[in-house]
Design brief:
This protein has 16 helices and 17 strands. It is of the alpha/beta class and 490 residues long.
């Protein structure tokens, strides 16, 4: 099994790139050969597509987002690219960043060493060709090209005019400070190019995901920035980590620099361990986007438990439990239903309320919904906004509580409810209708440790009341006593 030379997703070219005149990538390939660093097949593909030229010879792209799994040679590609910019394109100012200042400096020093040890390049170096003063580090040649590095902060590149930028490990950019410092510094340069190369990141990789999604939207719809390049060597979503064919999508050097048995061994270990170990493997070795490193509910198990043919819970009122919850800011409320049928817990979203006045709408509409569905029990969590809604409902006269419906707080403690729901999903004993809202809430639910136990915790700005309502409904449905037998008909 060999890695795939072509990425799984990329920006389509506007012209035939088999013509050497259509891309500066061919010149880059020849340059690397001439200095003794021949490119790997996937790197040659990348060079040709990244280097696409318009018919008038001007470069098509001003920025590029490149995703490839670790240990496939992306860093050496970037160092060679910097040397090409300095010796062939001879651009005046190049800036490089990495995960932090120390990593950026290590890469900078290795570029300097590569140039010094290559006879063809060293001829263009003056006896003094580096400045090592902290904060003023610079590397230059006698062709007038300078390469500097910076920490990934809001000061990177400010005050300068940049012609090229290399943002290594864009996954580590937790905000747009560096991006907003570097890109405007290139605005007045007609042929500027910012290359961002990384493996996939977690939910905090804000810049990577925003830029990737924007470039992908252009690939899929043709709407967006036509001068943004995207190339993603990534395993298909949901692929088994022990599938070598899937790993080949993210690891173009599989079978070359990366031994298949070694990568497969890592995959089997990660799959057996599950949890954060498996998620990190998916992110770093499969280049798959995962919402968080420590999700409360296993994403793979949740996806597998979804079904397009959701069970109609209406005929199962004798086993039906309802639960509602409210987000911390009161802007989102969810009413969930659950029932145990043939050994499986089936859940569905009954209704959700969103925006200003969501809790008021919940109070107004809940009595009629409960009267219509006639569940065995309606529950809510004993603390937080849901308890306030329940207290307000208790003041209603005539409508509340509904006839023949038990209305109460959940009887289990909150950690038991949260951990129980996660266990049911992991065991494959839950079915859900793939509701987009519920999928989103579950995807942004993490863990908050409480000693040897944990409860659900929000990750990011989104609400998770859907996850809490689902877990409370599941707990209530599983702890209901058996329904009384139907009355015999004479």
């Amino acid at each position: 099994m060999l890695g795939r030379v072509e990425p799984r997703i990329w920006t389509p070219p506007l012209r035939d790139l088999s013509d050497p005149a259509a891309s500066w990538g061919y010149e880059f390939i020849d340059f690397c050969e001439s200095i003794g660093w021949p490119l790997d097949p996937w790197q040659r593909w990348l060079a040709i597509h990244l280097g696409e030229l318009f018919p008038d010879g001007s470069p098509r792209y001003r920025k590029a987002v490149i995703l490839v799994a670790r240990q496939n040679g992306k860093t050496i590609f970037t160092r060679l690219l910097i040397l090409f910019w300095m010796w062939i394109e001879t651009v005046p100012e190049i800036l490089g960043t990495s995960t932090d200042r120390a990593a950026a400096k290590r890469s900078w020093l290795k570029v300097v060493t590569m140039a010094e040890q290559c006879e063809e390049l060293a001829d263009d170096l003056a006896p003094r060709h580096t400045a090592l003063q902290i904060g003023e580090e610079d590397f230059w040649n006698q062709l007038g090209s300078h390469y500097r590095f910076a920490a990934p902060t809001r000061r990177a590149g400010r005050g300068d005019t940049l012609h090229r930028a290399l943002l290594d490990e864009l996954r580590e950019h937790r905000n747009r400070d560096t991006w907003d410092a570097v890109l405007p510094a290139m605005a007045a340069v007609a042929d500027a190019l910012c290359v961002c190369i990384s493996n996939e990141g977690d939910a905090e990789s804000i810049v990577l995901h925003e830029e990737y999604d924007a470039a992908l939207a252009y690939v899929e719809t043709g709407v967006g920035d036509p001068r943004a390049f995207l190339a993603a060597w990534s395993s298909p979503s949901g692929a088994d980590p022990t599938d070598l064919g899937a790993l080949a999508y993210a690891n173009p050097n599989l079978g070359h620099r990366i031994p298949p048995d070694a990568l497969l061994g890592e995959a089997m270990t990660a799959k057996r361990a599950g949890g954060e170990t498996l998620i990190r493997f998916r992110i770093e070795r499969m280049c798959q986007r995962v919402d968080m490193l420590d999700p409360a509910i296993d994403p793979g198990a949740w996806k597998d438990s979804g079904t397009a043919d959701a069970l109609d819970l209406a005929p199962h009122r004798r086993q039906l439990a309802l639960a509602f919850d409210v987000s911390l800011d009161g802007s989102h409320c969810t009413l969930m239903a659950a029932a145990v049928v043939d050994g499986l817990v089936h859940v569905e979203v009954v209704k959700r309320w969103q925006g200003f006045g969501a809790t008021k709408a919940l109070r107004a509409e809940l009595p009629a919904l409960v009267a219509k569905l006639r569940p065995r029990v309606l529950v809510w969590l004993p603390s937080g906004p849901a308890a306030a809604v329940a207290a307000a409902l208790a003041e209603k006269r005539g409508q509340w509580p509904p006839r023949r419906v038990e209305v109460r707080e959940v009887r289990s403690d909150v950690p038991q409810i949260c951990m129980g729901a996660a266990e049911v999903v992991a065991a494959g004993e839950l079915r859900h209708p793939r509701d987009p809202m519920l999928d989103r809430h579950v995807g942004q639910t993490g863990k908050l440790e409480r000693g040897d136990q944990w409860i659900f915790a929000r990750r990011g700005a989104g609400p998770i009341d859907g996850t809490y309502a689902m877990a409370a409904a599941v707990d209530a449905a599983r702890t209901l006593p058996p329904p009384p037998p139907p009355l015999a008909v004479a």
